[in-house]
Amino acid sequence: MVSLRDLLVLLSTILFFLNDCLVSTLSINYVPTRLWGFSGHMQTVLHSIIGRVKCPWPLGERVYLSLEDGSTLTYDLYQPIKEFEDDITLAICPGIGNSSESVYIRTFVHYAQCHGYRCAVLNHIGALGSVQVTATRIFTYGHTEDFADMIDNLHRKYPGTSIITVGFSLGGNLITKYLGEVQTRKPESVIGGISICQGYNAVEGTKCLLNWQNFRRLYLYIMTENMKSIILKHRQVLLSDESIQRHNLNEREIIAAATLPELDEAYTRRVHNFSTTQELYRWSSSENYFDNIDKPIIFINAKDDPLIPEFLLGPVKNFVVAVVEGYV
């Protein structure tokens, strides 16, 4: 069993990745970098551009899993570059529409490898253009089954490893919900989790994204277009005649959707048998599963996150919260 000390060591590693400076103690206040560091928008945009320069491309193997519903799930597995005193595997769940090929994931994996961690990165179904969708679904905000299947496979591959779940944004919501779901059987090798920049409440979070304050509506537009591109990229399967008839879908409404709630009304909630989008969002929100979490978990959020206002952080006030700057 790995101690809480190991989780705090890992937290320092993640804070290094987020802030680009070594954090040796949680008692030190973060001082934003001059010029661009005082704006969450600037940090988010600049990292998305500069982060692509000399971004590492870790070498790993792609694992393919055939699921009961006919879906093909993949995750990328990366071995540690340096030896570490404990055998620890980071089970990483990326943000919405992201995968092991996303820049911030590649950067994090490389850094973790250099510090002795094995990494497994879930590729959200539909996110990889090189992997075909083989069933009439993709990932969602709250379905944790894909992540659970990856964890189970890792446990069988490495029965002696300790697994720490790590989630970014949407992935943070999924790993938190996974740890709090009573009906989901979790291997004893799962020792805890770290959630980075999630919003905890999909109902209230969506309301925030629908207004123009802090340019959130612009970010929402980008996320909506990304989700639509994933659906349309796999339209031969996801929008087949049989799928449209079974789920009562309208392809024109899907294409015309300008926001995630509109897209979820036209597609997501129908495919997954929810009566309303509000029901889907309530079921997906990780804050509704906090009471059943019995593993150590650390929540990290940015104080000036352009997407997630501070009032959404209320549910985690009783947990360990590290305050950093900018969005992932």
UniProtKB/TrEMBL annotation:
Xref: InterPro entries: AB_hydrolase_1, AB_hydrolase_4_CS, AB_hydrolase_4_sf, AB_hydrolase_fold, ABHD4
Lineage top rank: taxon: Eukaryota
Molecular function GO labels: acetylesterase activity; monoacylglycerol lipase activity
Regions that span the bilayer: none
GO CC terms in record: sperm flagellum; sperm plasma membrane
Entries under SUPFAM superfamilies matching the protein: alpha/beta-Hydrolases
Alphabetical list of Pfam families matching this protein: Abhydrolase_1
Domain AB hydrolase-1: 90-313
Swiss-Prot/TrEMBL keywords: Hydrolase, Membrane, Serine esterase, Signal, Signal-anchor, Transmembrane, Transmembrane helix
Gene3D superfamilies, sorted: alpha/beta hydrolase (3.40.50.1820)
Signal sequence coordinates: 1-27
Subcellular location: Membrane
Membrane topology: Single-pass type II membrane protein
GO process annotations (BP): acylglycerol catabolic process; medium-chain fatty acid biosynthetic process; medium-chain fatty acid catabolic process; sperm capacitation; steroid hormone receptor signaling pathway
Family the entry assigns: Belongs to the AB hydrolase superfamily. AB hydrolase 4 family.
Protein's UniProt name: AB hydrolase-1 domain-containing protein
Source organism of this protein record: Glossina pallidipes (Tsetse fly)
